[in-house]
Write a structure and sequence with these properties.
globular; mainly alpha; 3% strand; two-stranded antiparallel ribbon; 7 helices
């Protein structure tokens, strides 16, 4: 079980890293959070490169653990999406704050490690899908109501 302990410690480090880079600052009176990465990204081009270099830490930890190439490829893809999205003037900074590549990559590694250990990750309620489906249902009800009246 020393392998499990190493995985747990790695995930704890990555959770802390992701928290500080992606969501340690809360916007007052909202649930929206952002971290240091979008703040660094405010510096044109140089800040986005610095954010990309910071994001390499999660990939480094994944390689150290021995994550398969598919997981690593998805991590690189997430990092590139955030990097190129962050390069766009004005919109890029908001995109950087919302995309949260480090958190996504930490979750990718978490799911991979649970699979490797043969464990089920804790299930979370799919709130986003619930909200989208509820809105679609309400729109459908409204359309039907308008057709009838």
């Amino acid at each position: 079980m020393p392998e499990q302990e190493a995985y747990r410690r790695t995930l704890e480090r990555l959770d802390r890293f992701s928290y500080y880079t992606d969501s340690n600052i809360r916007v007052p009176f909202t649930k929206f959070r952002f971290g240091l990465s979008p703040l660094i990204g405010l510096l044109p081009v140089i800040g986005d490169f610095a954010g990309l270099i910071l994001s390499l830490y999660v990939l480094y930890e994944a390689r150290k653990i021995g994550a398969d190439t598919g997981v690593q490829r998805k991590m690189v893809w997430n990092m590139l999406i955030e990097f190129f999205g962050g390069l766009m003037p004005v919109f890029g900074d908001a995109f950087d704050a919302a995309y949260k590549a480090n958190t996504r990559n930490t979750e990718l590694l978490r799911r991979y490690l649970y699979r490797e250990l043969g464990e089920e990750p804790p299930k979370r309620f799919p709130w986003a899908m619930f909200i989208v489906m509820s809105l679609l249902f309400l729109v459908l009800l409204f359309v039907i109501w308008r057709m009838i009246w």
